[in-house]
Amino acid sequence: DYGLERPQGYNVSFHYNPHVEYHHFGSSHPMKPWRLTLTKQLVLSYGLEYTMDLYEPRPANFNELAIFHDREYLSYLSEITPQNAKPDDAQYIAYGFGGDSNDCPVFDGLWNYVSLYTGASMSAAYNLLNKQSDIAINWSGGLHHAKKNLASGFCYVNDIVIAIQLLLTQHQRVLYIDIDVHHGDGVEQAFESTDRVFTLSFHKYGIDRHGWPFFPGTGNIDEIGPKDPANRGKAHSLNIPIDDGIDDHQYKSLFKTVTSKVVEKYNPQAIVLQSGADSLGGDRLGRFNLNIKAHGSCIETVKSFGRPLILIGGGGYTPRNVARTWCHETAVCVGATLHDDLPTHIPYLQAFQGEENGGGRLYPDLHNTKRHDNLNTDPALQKLVERAMENLRYMEG
Ligand code: TV1
Ligand code: CA
Ligand code: ZN
């Protein structure tokens, strides 16, 4: 008995190719594909595989990635290896590899990696299109910064844009929601000239004490899409810039208020939710102070809208908490309640044990990590909601 109960009847599918796990960005790089191994182990240890349809999708091919990306960029991406990379090469720099931060390193199997996570997002989209699933999950995707000819912020291929393009073959309006702590700039930009996709991102926004903007530096409340009234994409983006340390109660209420209004006004026929786990308290790169259940409440809110839903991963840089969160959110989708004591037969149990690693529990208090003071006052958040509502009034239809 794992405390597994499943009262609701949603058809949920889980799209995952385990080969993604074996890719490494480099030992010091914060993006760790093996967080997906931990996630899968937790999902399996709670028996959640019996509550969903499991798919092992094939990798996406070149032509499928070209639904969004430039062929020249893809050719370069498909051929580059750590052995043949020339960091002084004009293309290398122009396509976003290297750079001082080394955010997008060239590593072994890079093409395979991008094809695998994109194949899984495509598989999720097809399941929605042929009505096999109400909710389709791909924790390996959500690489929201990639542009059509540019790698950016750990993202090389934008699987989200490609999945949304597939949904647009049958759905008139798709809503994209992004709770990763970073601004979903790549998805916003890809659809800036259409009214058939509405993009909504919640993220940390601001300049630190050294004068550096929080990555990627875009996503202020004023950014609602192109200013040209003739552009169909006008006012079809909404950005919710948030300061350090936002707590559970504030975030839940902000998310629910804004998202409900967007759904009411835009009336999407399908929703894609990027559930980056770097918005959790104690994340290595994030600045928020959210607990797992507060993060998961966003998934509950979106599920309650009752629209076909793709749920995808994204950031998340404290692997044990990423795994906890995505396991919990998988359970939210299928309508299961999970026991706080982790099952004792998990292969990587050690990663979750010890007080500093969450004491063998599924829902440790992440507020205890207290690294960021809450700089968000309730009146400031109230103003932010008012500005958001004002922005929504510019959207026609
Ligand atoms: C190699 C090794 C790369 C260690 C990158 C943190 C590293 C970072 C590293 C890092 C790091 C960023 C910038 C600065 C832009 C640069 C998956 C002006 C300890 C979706 C991407 C964040 C987030 C990019 C991706 C950011 C996602 N932060 N150590 N790099 N230059 N880049 O700030 O949204 O989660 O940090
Ligand atoms: Ca975001
Ligand atoms: Zn992020």
Structure, described:
The protein has one domain (12-392): Arginase, Chain A, CATH 3.40.800.20. The longest helix is centred in the N-terminal third of the chain and has 20 residues, at 110-129. The protein contains 11 helices and 8 strands. An 8-stranded parallel β-sheet has the order 2-1-3-8-7-4-5-6, with helices on both faces. By secondary structure, it is α/β, with parallel strands linked by helices. Helices cover 32% and strands 10% of the residues. The chain has helices at residues 35-45, 62-65, 71-79, 90-94, 110-129, 159-167, 185-190, 248-266, 292-304, 319-334, 378-392; strands spanning 12-15, 53-55, 135-138, 174-178, 197-204, 237-242, 270-274, 309-312.
Short description:
By secondary structure, the chain is of the alpha/beta class.
Number of strands: 8
Ligands, deduplicated: ligand TV1, calcium ion, zinc ion
Low-pLDDT runs = none
Task: Determine the number of helices (DSSP H or I, runs of at least 4 residues).
Answer: 11
CATH fold group: Arginase, Chain A
Number of domains: 1
